[in-house]
Design brief:
By secondary structure, the chain is an alpha/beta fold. The protein has a single domain, classed as NADP-dependent oxidoreductase domain (TIM Barrel), CATH 3.20.20. The protein contains nine helices and ten strands. The protein has an eight-stranded parallel barrel with strand order 3-4-5-6-7-8-9-10, surrounded by seven helices. Strands 1-2 form a two-stranded antiparallel ribbon. Helix 1 packs across helix 2, helix 3 crosses helix 5 and helix 6 runs parallel beside helix 7. The chain starts with a strand and ends with a helix.
Length: about 250
């Protein structure tokens, strides 16, 4: 089994390891989605049985149906789901959220992120989407809101944007496929956590798995940062799930 922690002040409790369903994910497909509906749903359940209650999906990954299938077995209240929208207007985001609810076959979404932000001024540019998502949160349809950034300026802005509950942050020891080097990114993550934001890391083993030669080192680095609550890894089979659970357990125990 794997430890669970509070995801900042979001009110959500998540496992230190998050099951990512978006490796090489874009244009409605991912490596995990390519496994097929039943196979990926089975792996999500397999991980869940070992304590991984945090699952990461997105509209662009095409894995909503797979997550929905797994939820049928584990129970909706037993998993925390992140999904993401790339839409950039209020009406489009409203339609997305309504569709996500149907696709995931649920009455609520745990975390919805504005996906792949690249502008330092995103809070001004995204006023429409933010207002729509805030209304959904007020109605209880969404539990927490946040962003994933692919630009350091956008990332820094996020640290002092109160609207944000959760951040999906690119972080690894080598600065590989990150918005900036870890010496610049880590202080921003610390500021986010100090403001109560929930942080979970991506690109932990680099883009395309560039750091998989020593995954234990990569995982120890990220989970050694007190400001990072969880980390997402894309997993393809039972062996990877078991290995990653073991490595996360060892990193947390240090």
């Amino acid at each position: 089994m794997i430890d669970q922690v509070d995801l900042g002040l979001s009110g959500l409790q998540v496992s230190r390891l998050c099951f990512g369903t978006g490796t090489n994910g874009w244009n409605k497909r991912s490596n995990q989605g390519d496994l097929g509906l039943e196979r990926l749903a089975y792996l999500l359940r397999y991980a869940h049985e070992r304590g991984v209650n945090f699952w990461d999906t997105a509209d662009q990954y095409g894995t909503h149906p797979h997550v929905a299938r797994a939820l049928e077995e584990v129970g909706r209240e037993e998993a925390v789901i992140t999904t993401k929208t790339t839409s950039r207007t209020g009406p489009e985001v409203k339609r997305d959220v309504e569709r996500f609810l149907r696709e995931l076959r649920t009455e609520y979404l745990d975390i919805v992120l504005l996906h792949c932000l690249t502008e330092a001024g995103w809070p001004t540019l995204m006023q429409g989407p933010m207002e729509v998502l805030s209304r959904f949160k007020e109605q209880g349809v969404i539990r927490a809101l946040g962003v994933s950034c692919h630009d350091f300026g956008a990332f820094r802005t996020t640290a002092h944007t109160p609207w944000v509950d959760v951040v999906l942050a690119r972080i690894n020891y080598a600065g590989q496929a990150m918005d900036a080097g870890p010496d610049e990114v880590v202080p921003v993550i610390e500021a986010m956590a100090a403001a109560g934001k929930g942080i979970y890391g991506m690109k932990v083993v680099g883009g395309g798995g560039a750091l998989t030669g020593d995954p234990a080192k990569a995982i120890r680095f990220v989970l050694g940062l007190p400001s990072v609550h969880s980390m997402v890894l894309g997993m393809m089979d039972e062996t990877q799930i078991e290995e990653n659970i073991g490595l996360v357990g060892e990193a947390v125990a240090v």
